[in-house]
Specification:
This protein is mainly alpha-helical and 381 residues long. Helix content is 80%, strand content 0%. The longest helix has 61 residues. The radius of gyration is 29 Å and the shape is elongated.
C-alpha cells in the first residue's frame, strides 16, 4: 500500500508542477502581449497626456479659469487612443462636446439643475447634434457633456466658462492631430506590409498542407486566411486617416500622392484576401476528400508565396512593389501553359492562383483593366 501511495503523491506533485509551469507561461505570455500593446500605443498615450496638461495650463493662463477640467477632458475625448479616421473622430467629438457643454451651460444659467433640467438638456443637446450630423459618436458626446455640465455646477460668476474650456480643448486636439499626427503616411504602409506577409505565410501553409495531405494544417491555414480580414480593416482605417490628415494638415501636403497611392491598394488587397480565403477553403476540402493536387499547381503556390513575401518586403521598405511585376508576369505566363487538369479542388486552386496574380499586378500600380489584360489565356487542351 505504501508504494502506490508514494507513486500517487509523486504523480500529484508532477501534475502540480506542470500546472504551475503552464500558469507561469500563460502569465508571461499575457505580460508580453500587454507590453506589445503598450509599445504600439506609447506615442498616442504620451500625445494625449501632454495635450491634456497643456490644455489645463492654457485655460488657466489665457482664460483665467481656476479649474478648467473640461479643457482636459475634451482633449482626451477627441484624441482618444485609436488610429483609424482620427480627423473625422476629432471633429465629431469636438462638435458633440461643444454642443453639449454650450446647451448645458445655458440651461444651468437660466433654469438651474434638477431632474427635469437634466431631461431637457439631454433632449436638446442630442437633438441639436442629430440635426447637425447623424454620427452616433457626436450625438452621444453631446448628451454626456450636457448632463456633466448640469450636474457639476460652476462657481458664482462662471456660468459660461466651461464651453470656453471645451472649445479650447477641442481646438487644441484638432491642432495636435494636424501638427503631430500618428504617422499617417507610413502607418498604412506598415499595415499593408503586414497583410501581405500574412498572406504569404498562409499560401505557404496551404501548400504544405496539400503536400502532406494534412487536414488539420489545412484548417489552420483557412483560419489564418479568415483572420486576415481584421488586419485589412485596420489598413483601410489607417489609409483613410492618412488621406484625411494630408488633405487638411498644412505640414503634410507634400505626402498627398503617397497617401493616396497607399489608399488605392486597399481594394486589390481586399480582393486578394478574398481569393486567398477561397483557395484555403478549397485546400481544406481537398485534404478532407483526399484529392491530389497536381505538382505543377503546388509549384505555382510556392512561387506565389515568394512573390507575395517580396511585395511585403517592398512595402515595408516604403516602396510600391513595382519590382515584383516581372516575377508576377512570369508566373502568369508559366501558369497559362499548365492547363486545366486534375481534381475539381486542384482546378479551383489553379483558378484562384491566377486571380491572385491579377490582384498582385494591381498592387504594383496597374489599373484593373490593364492587369486583367496582361494575364495570358490558359492553353486549350
Amino acid at each position: 500500500m505504501e508504494m502506490p501511495d508514494r507513486a500517487r503523491m509523486r504523480a500529484l506533485r508532477l501534475r502540480a508542477f506542470d500546472m504551475s509551469e503552464n500558469a507561469a507561461r500563460a502569465g508571461w505570455a499575457r505580460h508580453g502581449q500587454g507590453m506589445e500593446r503598450w509599445k504600439q500605443r506609447l506615442f498616442l498615450i504620451c500625445q494625449v497626456s501632454i495635450s491634456a496638461g497643456v490644455a489645463w495650463w492654457m485655460a488657466q493662463t489665457f482664460l483665467g479659469h481656476k479649474y478648467p477640467f473640461l479643457a482636459t477632458v475634451s482633449v482626451i475625448l477627441c484624441l482618444g487612443l485609436s488610429y483609424g479616421q482620427r480627423v473625422t473622430r476629432v471633429i465629431s467629438v469636438a462638435i458633440g462636446v461643444f454642443i453639449g457643454v454650450m446647451v448645458g451651460d445655458l440651461i444651468a444659467h437660466f433654469f438651474g439643475a434638477g431632474p427635469w433640467q437634466i431631461m431637457m438638456v439631454c433632449f436638446l443637446a442630442m437633438s441639436i447634434a442629430t440635426w447637425a450630423h447623424s454620427q452616433t459618436l457626436m450625438i452621444n458626446q453631446a448628451g454626456i457633456q450636457a448632463a456633466t455640465v448640469l450636474t457639476l455646477m460652476p462657481a458664482l460668476g462662471e456660468s459660461f466658462s466651461r464651453w470656453q474650456d471645451a472649445l479650447l480643448g477641442c481646438g487644441l486636439a484638432l491642432l495636435v492631430t494636424m501638427v503631430a499626427p500618428t504617422s499617417p503616411v507610413q502607418k498604412p504602409r506598415v499595415k499593408a506590409a503586414a497583410v501581405l506577409a500574412g498572406c504569404a505565410r498562409t499560401v505557404t501553409m496551404v501548400r504544405d498542407a496539400l503536400v502532406a495531405h494534412d487536414e488539420d494544417a489545412a484548417m489552420e491555414a483557412l483560419e489564418r486566411a479568415r483572420a486576415t480580414q481584421g488586419s485589412l480593416t485596420q489598413l483601410s482605417q489607417a489609409a483613410a486617416e492618412g488621406v484625411q490628415v494630408v488633405r487638411y494638415s498644412p505640414f503634410l501636403r507634400g505626402h498627398k500622392e503617397n497617401a493616396q497611392a497607399i489608399a488605392e491598394l486597399v481594394v486589390p488587397l481586399d480582393r486578394m484576401v478574398r481569393n486567398l480565403r477561397v483557395l484555403a477553403r478549397r485546400a481544406a476540402v481537398a485534404t478532407w476528400r483526399h484529392e491530389d493536387v497536381p505538382q505543377d499547381y503546388l509549384d505555382s503556390l510556392t512561387e506565389l508565396a515568394d512573390i507575395i513575401d517580396f511585395c511585403a518586403t517592398e512595402m515595408k521598405a516604403r516602396r510600391i512593389p513595382t519590382q515584383a511585376r516581372e516575377r508576377i508576369l512570369a508566373l502568369a505566363e508559366s501558369s497559362a501553359h499548365l492547363g486545366v487538369h486534375g481534381s475539381l479542388s486542384g482546378v479551383v486552386i489553379y483558378a484562384q492562383i491566377r486571380s491572385m496574380l491579377v490582384d498582385l499586378l494591381e498592387l504594383t500600380g496597374l489599373d484593373p483593366a490593364e492587369s486583367r489584360e496582361l494575364l495570358p489565356e490558359v492553353d486549350a487542351d
